[in-house]
Amino acid sequence: MKNPVAQNVADFLKQYPPFSSLLINELLDIAAHCKVLYLEKNQILFRGGDATHSDFYIVKDGAVGLSLTSDAEETLIDKCDEGDILGLRPFFAKNDYLLTARAREESLVYGIPIAVFEPYVVQNPKVLNFLLESFASQTRNPYDKERSGRLLSENTIFSEQEVDIQYFQPIKYTRNPITANPDDVLMFIAKTMANSSIGSVIIQQDQLPIGIITDRDLRSKIATGLFPITVEAQEVMTSPVITVPENISVAEAQMIMLKHNVGHLCVTRDGSDKSIVSGIISEHDVVAAQANTPGVLLKQTRRATNNKELKYVREKLTDLIQSSIDKNIPISHISNIVAEINIALTRRAIELAVIKIGTHPPVRFTWVNIGSQGRKEQLLLTDQDNALVFEDVEDSQYDSVKRYFIELAELVTESLNKVGYEFSPHNIMARNPQWCKSLTDWIKQYNIWINTPAEKGVEISTLFFDFDFIYGFPAIEDALTETIQQNISRNKKFFAFLANDTLKNLPPLGFFRQFLLESDGDHKDNFDIKARALEPLIDAARLLALSYGLTEITNTYHRYKKLADLEPQHADLYDECAEAFNVLQKFRTENGLINSSNGRYLNLDELSKTDKVKLKNCFQPINDIQDLIKNRFSLTFIN
């Protein structure tokens, strides 16, 4: 007789790996032994320090957070959604759980006994491979694009320490290096080095390294006349050679070179001079490995003398973003690093423009990034939005001073365009006289936007409330910020228009929970992740932050985190919005990197079922935050 409950469980399991590799009768057998667990919001499934359960779990409905408690503070590390497996620790280790699994909302979870599932792991190579790949790639689901590279959450200890992203990764080096014998004549070794454009040759005996000859040896021992060029290699080689194991990190290689004052390291199978040579690491390899680290990119930016050098840095920054995403560095951390380098690029473009003009600015000024750069959220090479504010001057000087700054802005925006940042399609740039003016004129402009809002005016001005003063005189920034804060304080009309504008972008799901896709144009049948998902969250964060007078925080993620502090009763919603924003940012960034685009339009056919679920899960917070806005702001005030 059919067991309808087991049938329902089996139908659910077969949608997700590794269960999708099993036969229906096998799934029914597993389903018959499953436990169905209902978890209330905040209910604990297992706690860090608990002994591992005899079951592992798969989320049927809802969401389960995995968190680490340190110094009495619980930090969310990961979130498991529909179809996600958790509690796999018994397959890999028998010691206690490291993380706590807590329901983030009302959830249904299936508990699958290890003893029941284990025979199918042994019998089915695909299931075994899934678990092995999961362990090897350090992910719960190696087929899950979003979590590719993420540590097994139940098996890892979380660390908040921020390190240079690539510094502790394995270094790339020359494999199968050129070698010579100890009795070979140095002249022929030197010719080989010159013809092969290499700086070193390993001297080996019986395939084991006994020394090394480098350019430094040729300079110090041969060019000085200390030894004739006809001498044998063993007479001038540096010995013993410093050996290191394969997969050594950049940091370790650099430290060993410094410790032994050498420029080359010999790589062997086990790291000793008693095993076969497998490669060689040079100082150049160490430098090249660090070329994409944030510190090096910042230094290169500050030393750049032309647009070509700035463009090189931005290209390396793209490599850094890709590398960071591959290693599953949190997107908020990546954004912080990228923002600092973007700012440095703009600052250097301004400095080079001043040098090119040949005269110092006639008065003090400040350069303002607005929009995504102002929010420090520009990961991809999208368009530039900026403005310029200069000190007030006498009427007689105004035109000439403004001409200077428009010329300066022309050079800066042209430079940024050559680096890769497209011109603003709406000409919202400092080169436009409308966005290059004195402090008093800017104060008047903000007064118009805030005190006499019109729908079109607010639509234009919203960008200008996401600003970052990145270059120039701080007093100008202070004066403008103070004006904005004073004018928006308790300004119901302004916030009514801003709220109305915020609610124009509806949640991106149709009545039957289908994605709302583009119906025509070049991107027909694609999903506009910017307009339909990111912008509603960005707009809501801006509105709510400004309602508290928070002009100094412009980043969407940090706005929500601050709001969670200010409103504990809505902290869960704000945290969900912050998390959804990061997930959407990652989707867009990955899409842009893959397609060399701005990442705005997603082809949903290219997403896995798991990724589509994760994308949809980001939409509920949009709906909830818009409901909060409807209840909080007097939308009828604009009538």
Overall description:
This protein has 639 residues and is α+β, with helices and mostly antiparallel strands. It is 46% helix and 15% strand. 38% of the residues are buried. The protein has a four-stranded antiparallel sheet with strand order 1-8-3-6. It is flat and about 90 Å long. It has 24 helices and 21 strands. A hairpin with a 2-residue loop joins strand 4 and strand 5 (73-80). The longest helix is centred in the middle third of the chain and has 27 residues, at 331-357.
Shape: flat
Instruction: Look at the structure and give the mean pLDDT.
Output: 84
Radius of gyration using CA atoms only: 30 Å
With strands numbered from the N-terminus, the spatial order across the biggest sheet is 1-8-3-6
Number of continuous helical runs: 24
Which residues sit in consecutive blocks of at least 5 with pLDDT less than 50? 135-140, 145-166
Number of extended strands: 21
Given the helix and strand composition, which structural class is it? alpha+beta
Q: What is the end-to-end distance?
A: 65 Å
Question: Quick one: biggest sheet?
Answer: 4 strands, antiparallel
- Fraction of residues in H or I helices: 40-55%
Strand % is 15-25%
